Amino acid sequence: MEQNLLLTYLLFTPVIGSVLVLFFRNEQKQLARWFGLIVSLIAFVISLVIYFRFNPTNPQFQFIYQVTWIKSLNISYHVGVDGISLLLVLLTTFLTPLTLLSTWKAIEKNVKMFTFSMLFLEAGMLGVFISLDIFLFYIFWEAMLIPMYFIIGIWGGERRIYASLKFFIYTMFGSLLMLVAIIWLTVYASGMLGKFTTSLVDLYKVGPTIPHQIQGWMFGAFFLSFAIKVPIFPLHTWLPDAHVEAPTAGSVILAGVLLKMGTYGLIRFCLPLFPQSAVQYAPLVSVLAVIGIIYGALVSMVQTDMKKLVAYSSVSHLGFVVLGIFAMTVESVQGAVIQMINHGLSTGALFLLVGILYERTHRRDIAFYGGIAKIVPLYATILMIASLSSIGLPGLNGFIGEFLILLGSFKSSVLNSWWFTIFAATGVIFAAVYLLWMYQRIVFGEVKNEELKHELTDMNLREMIVMVPILFFIVWIGVYPNTFLKLTEASTQSILQQVGTYTVNLLK
Amino acid sequence: MINYIYLTTLLPLLGFVINGLFGRKIKNERIVGIIGSATVGLSFLVVLGAFIQTLGLPVEERSNTVNLFTWLSVGGLHIQFAYLVDQLSLTMSLIVTGVGFLIHVYSIGYMHGDKGIWRFFAYLNLFIFAMMNLVLGDNFVVLFLGWEGVGLCSYLLIGFWYDRKFEKGTTSQAAKKAFVVNRIGDFGFLLGMFLIYMTFDSLNFKEVFARAQAFPVAESTFGLIALFLFIGATGKSAQIPLFVWLPDAMAGPTPVSALIHAATMVTAGVYMVSRTSILFASAPAIMTVVAVVGALTALMAATIGLVQNDIKKVLAYSTVSQLGYMFLAAGVGAFSASIFHVMTHAFFKALLFLGAGSVIHGMHDEQNIQKYGGLKKYMPKTYATFFIAALAISGVPGLAGFFSKDEILWNAYSNGGFVFWLIGAVTALMTAFYMFRLVSLTFYGHERFDHHHVHPHESPSVMTVPLMILAFLSVVGGYIGLPKVFAGEHGNLFENWLEPIYAPAQEKLAMYSSSTHLEEILLMSISVALALYGIYFALHVYRKNPKIADNFANRFKSMYNLLLNKYFVDEVYEAAVVQPIQKGSEKVLWKFTDAKLIDGTVNGAATIVDKISGVIRKVQTGVAQSYALIMVAGIALVLLWLILSL
User: Fold this and answer.
1) What is the spatial distance between Cα A136 and Cα A343, in angstroms, rounded to a whole number?
2) Residues 165-184 of B with CB under 8 A from A
3) pTM tops 0.90
């Protein structure tokens, strides 16, 4: 097969960048910032090149590069993308420079190490999305924990140690289960294929032949690991803490990309590797997803801390994604994929906006604010658009995802019941409640605190440069989602086909 | 002009963008107002052109689709961004852009001096954009785009004066309430769409309706579809049980109440039911539900309207009541009559609201009618036009409201039954009464305001000219829909024009009226007599003997309080729905489930691991002898096991 190095260039850009930044002196803060921004922009440009050369009608992995890495175990450095992973790669390379730029004022402590962590994190995330070798995938999956742990633990809030530990232990616990399952799977594969292999493409053939009961355990182990990352109810309690304590940049990347690795894992591994179990447990998983949608929304509604409110809203929004994935119709899975992007954009934007207020006043409690529309009208407008996007207003991105997910799950033969959709759709109501209520309390009314008049200033140029591209895509996806849906359609079809071939009897 | 129909959404969108982005910098508020009004005026001309062009086409060619681009395409789902230009959408478009234009012009005067005028016109234009998508969309998803879009604009405009108080709360609370209650309806609408897609494999109007006629579909499926869609309609069009947001929506500036909460947006539910008439006609049980809900809403809102003292509140409940009429009409299969009433109601109710706005404007923002009185001489133009509108809504023969209301009442009787007619007629009596109570308390009698602080004055002509045009329409607007009993079998131009839209539904309903002309004329006479009596009684009481009203209120105190407090529906919802959800979420879900149950388990597990490791650690004493001891014990155990298993 023809080897293509583009993805490797992409992956190694932040890797090399992160190493180089270590050679900076501590005082060279501004230089480190510019350097980080430029490196991440280069990565973005490379990902754009890949996007333009990508053939969306081909469901196979493209831009493949494979070299043997550990010969004795037949492990290779094997990368490639299909439409789904490419879209997530683009999300990663798009959000990273914006996030870096957003921290220019907020992060003063150890800028060099911060830039290092962020670039290292970007490399880890990219690695997760482009790995086609399950062992390689696992390495990136774990490696990425480290910079995130530091970002929360060093640049976080008061309870940062507690939060970062909780984050680390929760995810580690899941990962270890997955590691056990990976080892079992590869050993089993070597028995089936006569050679030891960790290649995902090979494993796709092996996974569905695993005896029923064992496959259930395998599915469970992978699922649990991803479910913690997503997070799916009731494994979500690390998320609010992590978000609240993380610096803005950490929250944006955490919500924007990291959580997507969980849902990406479900699509990339759980469904095609263990199709029978996935179908069998789909109703159960969907029940959890729907509980997550409603539960996340209700708990979000009563929060007094803005960041926590947005964090719980993530639980709700990702419930939609999981429901879409396990409804296993083209509409719902396509909706789930686009919803991953949407959530990255709108929740990312919300976290950035909360961060902008926090930078000025160092307050995140909703009760402190009120009436800021008068003081910062531009900010109020942008917060409105981001909230509406999150609420799922037609014409903006959120609607497309939710609509497709609900539509697809309604007619899903795997779920085979309307109740999932009916309950999930109540999330549409609650989203309006908690976001508009927050908005009303922060933005409308009389100016509540005199301090606000002195401390608050409207969005500055740098902040606008961060927000405008996000808003641009919020509108683009809402008005013309086909640009993105076309990219993933063939890949989605192919995964569902893989599931369908092996479960055709189960469904009848 | 049909092919340029997209201009009718594009122009207001352009107005929104210009005023939204640069409005703040345009220091001259007149320019802002002209941009806002001109875009809608031009849209009206485009609609008018398309209307005239369509009139010139043979009947079977009057339904045209204008395709713009593919919006959503996934698997088998293909949603075009396309507009359907047919008799129904043109009728609605004429109302939206025509009345909309007048209200825009009026707003130049009404909002004069408001710092946020650029924002006001931007939102108003965005509303027209959304509303036009709602009525022009050729499929459910574009309709839903408009549907939610108008909800957003309603939200933005109710809370336009975001730093003001409104009743017990703030304007922004009223705005949020409107949006959330609407969303409850949207929830139903969404489910309806899903079921339609599952049943007919399409969301395009023409395809769905054609398949609904041709496919053998269970009546229960149709029933569910219709029910879900109707839930959507009850939200947007303020019907029982979701009407509670509309009275609070009066927190917005009065032109908003006229445009959104009287003339156009709130009729979206009626339009939607009318558009999907074939689906409703296929579900007779739900048709009855629609008629019953409509009738009850009409009656209930009218009773509340009898005792309210806020000029806008009276009109708000009146709107709820009139919307009830429209659903009553749709429920008995008289879809054309329901749209006819949408149109006439748009004229006279917009006029009433704008007139009320003119009064409020002249009375320095006072809205309590008990503090008006004798305003006739101060604002003659406002009075004259308001009086005409009041006659029209009361159903006085010769004016627009008479024709559409009579059409509804007659259909309620002949297709629905006597009880429906009776409720409609009683409502008509009450309507006439509360309208002329309003007229009397505002324009007649002695002046009850403080002359030192309030100096009533007539509004400028930029406000009164739109009033006069609407007054003109409220008089003549009904003549395109003359009752058949007078004009002959094909004499109702309005019904003839819309007939092709409802033909499939009518065929399905197969209504054969056995009623006679004599019955029709008799019933018409009774309802007119009731309306006239209502007017007379209101004038008698409030103009001449205001004591009668007080005595009445005292004698039936509990009833009066019940009505004054709007049957305590808000309070019941608050106690039964809002509070339990809020308290439950906070106490049970967050502080118990999340913090105690889940985190407690996780942290507990960590503690246990900690404890166990504490114990195990003690094993690692570093003393070689004890290690040896354990080793020996281990070997002994293994040996024992081997021996036992032999």
Assistant:
1) 27
2) 170-173, 175-176, 179-180, 183-184
3) yes
